[in-house]
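Let us work through a complete example step by step.
Step 1: write down the sequence.
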Amino acid sequence: SPSSLFVVNADDGAMVDTATVLIRNQESTPGDNFGLYVQAGSNSSDISFRVADKDNNEYLRVRGDGNVGIGTTSPSYPLSLENSGTGLISRIYNTNADGQGLLIRAGATTSATRALQIASSNDTKIMTVNSNGRVGIGTTNPSTKLYVDAGQSTFNRGNSAGTIATFRGQNSEKAVIATAQSYFLSNVGIG
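Step 2: predict the structure and record it as tokens.
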């Protein structure tokens, strides 16, 4: 007997290289064409939508509170991706030569809200990009546009000659570090 109100079962070999269920709406009026609408659940213990393989290994879950989990049955965020493998967990790839990649919008430019944070598996924060445009490497609270803490930094131009870094202030060049010649265009105090 069926375990649910509606069950579609395809025995082995019955559906080869085709979908077991096809939902098609060929309405041509824009905004009037809908495919599948699932309404279920209202809290984190409810499952509104679930995708699993034939052995019941779950791949995707939409909880009743709206959180979506891929690779996890208990997503703590609106979108949680988890994987225990050694490879990349996700890839965003735009094959167009002029295509763009990823836009993250978060916080106001007047605040230090995290727009992007990269951490290790034990949650050690490696890099933080705040909504005020400040980037911290080795710190979660960068006080300048680029703040590198707790380690050495290397600027490498490779095998080509030329400028390695240019420092500007008040919209003009103040110092240049280059492979052949480095110089300061403002007063320098040593000692």
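Step 3: interpret the result. The mean pLDDT is 90.
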